[in-house]
Amino acid sequence: MAAGAGSFSALLRAANALLQKRRYHAALAVIKGFRNGAVYGAKIRAPHALVMTFLFKSGSLREKLKSIAQATYAHSRNLAYFVFTYKGLLAAQSRLQGKKIPFHSFLAACIGGWLVFGDNNPINSQIIMYLLSRILFGLSRLAMEKGYIPQPKKDPFPLVAALVWGTVLWLFEYHRETLQPSLQSSMTYLYEDSDVWHDLSDFLIYNKRTDSK
């Protein structure tokens, strides 16, 4: 028992010593990036999938749990692969050129995005739309910082909010098929199901009656 504990301690010390070696830092950062991508993807997707599945999807409990597990795995896997690819390509470019330049980040992420998120499926689509909205805000702020567009005299956010909500409700009412299925489900619940009821039970307690009255 003591010998086994001693061997484990020696192995642990060797591993910690390896982690401190500067020469392996880039490779180890890629591995940890893979780990962090997997964990973060699971943390983000699991609660979202849980809520959306139980709110809007029909089926047995087993089918719902399977759907949650599949969505969580897909998000976790894709994010892990992307971080691994991005950091690996970033390290390779930096090593080849002897230094890191801004274009390295763009090129590495483009390649990773193409390879990992290029498949047009609900998970990837949601991630890309999430990023797109933040990119637009980020580019707008950058353009103001660089002086490409003038600093607004008033906060433009109220106008942005009005245009976003006006556009999305117009699309939902007249071109619904252009919206992502999960957004369609949410809006159907909010804006259409609220138009239908039969008595107090499906007016205040339930969204829809399950009986055959």
UniProtKB/TrEMBL annotation:
GO terms for cellular component: peroxisomal membrane. It comes from the Eukaryota. It holds the Pfam family Tim17. This is PXMP4 protein. It comes from Mystacornis crossleyi. The gene is Pxmp4.
